[in-house]
Design a protein that fits this description.
The structure holds 3 protein chains of 3 kinds. By secondary structure, chain B is mainly α. Chain B is built from 12 helices and 2 strands; from the N terminus they run αααααββααααααα. Classes of the chains: A mainly alpha, B mainly alpha, C alpha/beta.
Chain lengths: ~300, ~290, ~400
């Protein structure tokens, strides 16, 4: 049943891709898929360990810049550069998990916000790798087997495969011992310690996996959009990703997918409405928090449990 | 050469004090709200910006006199804060772990406000410079200080001083402190916590408004300032300890002076890194805040 | 959402059907996809530009619709700008793109347009790489920012041949480009740069830096803060004892100039259009008056470039250019004058325009106007500077 729902959510952009045959909507579907990947990865931390990583966009940015650098300057294949960039992101994630040893909940989120700001300034300040505020233009699309850029809509299908793989991976992880351990830690850290669980180790592991997914999304994003710039990876992006998870329903596999599907395309679809989109976005956030505090999918689950 | 060095030293002091106290005022407003209601007010930067923008609109663009421009700004923001508390924020008071819900909601409100500013003020200009109520300089040999900045500093200091005195001496202020020291005990002593919550939210918002007006006096505003201020004041509030005005003041000054002193030896970007690092370090050393209860 | 898109889809289907059928009607207006910063960091620039363009659009369409601006918001975000370019290309089927005013956003549009073979006429984007060698689709109205730095040095050299200068800038792409040109030319012209300060984008105070700058005793200081910081920086420089005659802004838009404050009267700035210029054409004067009627302040170079962009397109339409290939070919061949100032418009093989700059001195300032005096005018070929090596 749950698999069916997941399949339906992931299939929605694919319908846009093959059903509507509209170049612009295909592009938005691709954007939505990348955000689904990110939201799922962020959910691994926020949903299953309770940490709010507001450094998420920064981590993705590090992988994006690394991948772009490897491809454009050193001529590596995108498919070789992406795992290297993501590994770098995972490594940074390892460092960023350190504050979690000491800081909890809201305080951890705040430390993330501070670190994220430092990232953004660093992306501007060290132009040798990032080209500063200017950003890097004309980033090539990922290449296919024939060595040429993968054309739409096949590229979007590749993105969908990434999402499926990530969701499947996270789903399996959650069923494993490791996943159950994480949930125990989230529910009651003291109890977990009393049971002899190494809290720090488990949480760091989750951080590394989640950061790796952030990195995958970052590399794909830069090469999909064709541009990398500091503003694409700033604190507002981190906040938006977190909102997608919170709005969709944290701690479920479907929730983040749903949140990303609803929120990510919004700014692209409202291009004629300029500032109104901010207001709509804000009102949606307030209403969902007021009336669906567990997120949209959390609400659905609760309704089902009641009947 | 001596005179030039003296100028730099003085500039560190004036910059550290002015930037420090203004940010302290905004952080104190935030701290009051979070300390009392457990409400991390993420829209505080946008409230701050709104205050500055309205003050600019009334005082500079429409050329109202100060005695009309300032109270009108307070009234409008106060009314909006009241409406927001009565319709949205109130609903979460019974919840134990409301701070995350509040964070999400206030981020939503911040988006709404930011959109409104873009659609209105964004059409008018990209810089909002308030006309100085008084021109000229105070000369503290050999250093000239613009009167507006001096006034902003004095007012910021008075707001903080007044707030500390109010919390310690006045009946309601004492009740407020009782709530953020121990909610349960306060309730048992017959303090109406819901009323105190509302009062704290309004007072905190008023102080943020004052901060916005003072900032507009001393510097200039654009529409990106809101997010920057949010970030800095959140850090100051947490490091100082939620609910502690003195904490906000001390950490605000540390922030102001770190930036000013590092600027002497390194470029401004490094100075920004330095204060971010200082914030992080303090957060690690005492996660609950330096001046927590 | 679907409600908004279904009509568009049907239009799309009809358009495709029409293309298969007889050729399009000859008097169809030129469809200009206006990819603009209407929200986000650069909201005001996007809006100012659009104000100028809309005024021109109304004027040229007074007797029958010739130009159709299709405006979409890129939210000052490169990713969004690429998406908007795609939307204008594939949904709206525009004949060309225009509108972006900022470096990173216009670079994102550049990337899309060069791939999609869609011509772009950039109204106010100064980043040199927009017309790097090999550029096929992009044409740029504004001289590149490296040249602005060059002009600053050349100008200061006319004031004092062995001047010492200081530089204070916010860390934005356009300012880095100016700095690159400035350093390159200063080295060659024997102008010493005694201090160089780059501020992060979020900076709001420069008390310490201005005092340090004072200690370095430069003859001139070049100031380019971002947003509100420009006003603060200018005031704090005056506070610390610099004379207004020592301050030079490499660019000045109307609102920006008006926030420098009365004390900055006497300071210098570079620009490409000013309503006080003596050489305004009749149409230029009318533009200033008509703009004032709508906005209550005089237009600056941003508004002027966007106004002239629409008029340039109008001229091409009058000469019979249509369709993407037609417009691109016509832009390549263009040899005309800016309608407001008479400055020549010609593009080199990469789409760059001849470089020029007006050097102005601020003479008076009121709430909704300011007076300036032209102190210098310079013209140079883009080749005098290795712009594409200096800035990437």
């Amino acid at each position: 049943m749950r698999i069916l729902v997941i399949a339906m959510v992931i299939a929605t952009p694919l319908v846009a891709i093959f059903g509507l045959r509209n170049d612009f909507l295909v592009f938005i579907a691709g954007i939505a898929l990348i955000h689904m990947l990110w939201a799922s990865g962020l959910n691994l931390l926020y949903g299953f360990t309770g940490l709010i990583p507001l450094t998420y966009a920064g981590i993705a940015g590090i992988s994006a810049y690394m991948t772009v650098h490897l491809v454009m300057r050193l001529g590596l294949s995108f498919w070789l550069a992406l795992p290297i960039g993501s590994a770098a992101a995972a490594l940074v994630g390892l460092l960023l998990s350190l504050p979690a040893i000491r800081l909890r909940g809201f305080y951890f989120a705040l430390s993330g916000m501070v670190i994220q700001s430092a990232f953004t300034i660093a992306f501007v300040y060290f132009p040798a790798y990032t080209n500063g505020d200017t950003g890097i233009a004309s980033v090539p699309r990922p290449t296919g087997f024939d060595g040429g850029a993968i054309p739409s809509p096949y590229m979007e299908c590749v993105l969908a495969l990434f999402v499926i793989a990530a969701v499947a991976g996270i789903g399996l992880t959650m069923r494993s011992r490791f996943g159950r351990t994480l949930i125990t830690i989230r529910e009651d850290e003291d109890l977990a310690r009393a049971l002899g669980i190494n809290v720090t180790l488990n949480r760091t592991a989750a951080f590394i996996i989640s950061s790796f997914i952030a990195g995958l999304g970052g590399g794909l994003y830069a090469h999909y959009i064709g541009f990398a710039s500091p503003r694409a990876f700033d604190v507002l992006i981190s906040l938006n990703l977190w909102l997608m998870v919170a709005m969709g329903g944290r701690g479920t596999l479907v929730g983040p997918l749903l949140g990303a599907l609803l929120l990510a395309p919004l700014p692209y679809l409202l291009v004629q409405y300029t500032w109104v989109k901010d207001v709509i976005y804000g009102v949606a956030i307030v209403l969902v928090t007021l009336f669906l505090p567990q997120g949209i999918y959390g609400f659905v689950l609760k309704r089902k449990a009641r009947t | 050469m001596l005179e030039e060095n003296l100028l730099v030293v003085f500039s560190v002091i004036t910059s550290g004090l002015l930037v420090g106290t203004i940010f302290s005022v905004v952080a104190a407003g935030l701290s009051l709200i979070h300390g009392t209601i457990l409400l991390p007010q993420a829209a505080n930067g946008q409230v701050f910006l709104g205050a500055g923008l309205l003050f600019w609109l009334f005082g500079t663009e429409w050329e109202w006199p100060l005695w009309l421009a300032v109270p009108t700004t307070f009234l409008i923001i106060g009314f909006l804060a009241f409406a927001c508390e009565a319709t949205i924020l109130k609903r979460f008071y019974p919840l134990e772990d409301r701070n995350i819900s509040y964070l999400i909601i206030t981020l939503g409100i911040a988006q709404i406000l930011s959109g409104i500013y873009t659609g209105t003020f964004g059409r008018i200009s990209d810089t909002f410079q308030v006309t100085a109520p008084v021109n000229g300089f105070a000369i503290i040999e050999p250093v000239p200080i613009a009167y507006t900045r001096l006034i902003a500093f004095v007012l910021a200091g008075s707001v903080l001083g007044g707030l500390v005195a109010f919390l310690r001496l006045h009946r309601i202020g004492r009740a407020l402190r009782a709530v953020f020291q121990n909610r349960e005990a306060a309730r048992l002593r017959g303090i109406d916590t819901l009323k105190i919550y509302r009062f704290a939210f309004l007072l905190g918002t008023a102080i943020t408004t004052a901060g916005g007006i003072l900032f507009a006096l001393a510097f200039a505003l654009d529409l990106t300032v809101g997010w920057t201020i949010s970030l800095i004041t959140f850090s100051i509030m947490i490091v100082g300890g939620p609910g502690s005005v003195v904490g906000a003041l001390v950490v605000g000054l540390v922030f102001g002076f770190t930036q000013a002193i590092v600027s002497v030896f390194a470029d401004p970007t490094v100075a920004t890194f330095a204060y971010l690092l200082a914030m992080l370090a303090m957060l690690f050393i005492r996660p609950s805040g330096l001046f927590a209860k | 959402m679907l409600g908004r898109f279904l009509p568009k889809l049907s239009v799309l289907v009809c358009a495709m059907a029409a293309m298969a059928g007889p050729a399009l009607a000859a008097d169809q207006p030129l469809k200009v996809g206006w990819n603009s910063e209407l929200s986000g960091v650069w909201t005001f620039f996007g809006n100012a530009c659009l104000d100028g363009a809309r005024l021109a659009e109304t004027e040229v369409n007074a007797k029958g619709k010739k130009i159709d601006l299709i405006v979409q918001d890129n939210q000052s975000n490169p990713a969004q700008a690429a998406a908007v370019a795609r939307s204008l290309d594939t949904q709206e089927k525009v004949d060309l793109l225009s509108g972006p005013t900022n470096a990173d956003v216009s670079l994102a549009v550049y990337g899309y347009a060069e791939d999609a073979k869609l011509p772009v006429l950039m109204p106010v984007a100064a980043f040199p790489q927009l017309t790097k060698p090999g550029t096929k689709q992009v044409f740029r109205m504004e001289p590149d920012a490296v040249g602005w730095g060059y002009a600053a040095v050349k100008f200061i050299k006319t004031m004092k041949s062995d001047a010492k200068i200081g530089v204070m800038m916010s860390d934005f792409a356009v300012n880095r480009a100016i700095l690159a040109g400035l350093k390159y030319q200063a080295e060659r012209d024997g102008i010493a740069i005694v201090a160089e300060m780059l501020f992060p984008q979020s900076a709001s105070d420069a008390t310490v830096q201005t005092a340090q700058m004072k200690a370095k005793k430069p003859d001139f200081v070049i100031l380019a803060g971002g947003g509100a910081f420009d006003a603060t920086l200018t005031r704090q420089m005056l506070d610390v004892g610099f004379k207004p005659e020592q301050l030079y802004h490499p660019y000045g838009s109307t609102k920006q100039i008006m926030t420098w404050g009365e004390r900055s009267i006497g300071s210098y700035f570079g620009t490409f259009f000013d309503h006080n210029l003596p050489n305004l054409t009749e149409q230029g004067k009318a533009f200033v008056e008509n703009f004032r009627k709508v906005k209550n302040y005089p237009p600056g170079y941003t508004e002027n470039y966007c106004y002239s962009t629409v008029y340039l397109l109008n001229e091409l339409v009058d000469k019979g250019a249509k369709g993407r290939d037609g417009i691109r070919a016509a832009l390549r061949e263009v040899n005309t004058k800016e309608v407001t100032t008479g400055v020549p418009i010609r593009f080199d093989q990469n789409g760059a325009r001849i470089e020029y700059m007006y050097l102005m001195q601020l003479k008076s300032l009121s709430k909704d106007d300011f007076k300036t005096e032209k102190v210098n005018y310079m013209e140079w070929s883009p080749e005098v500077l290795p712009v594409y090596d200096l800035v990437r």
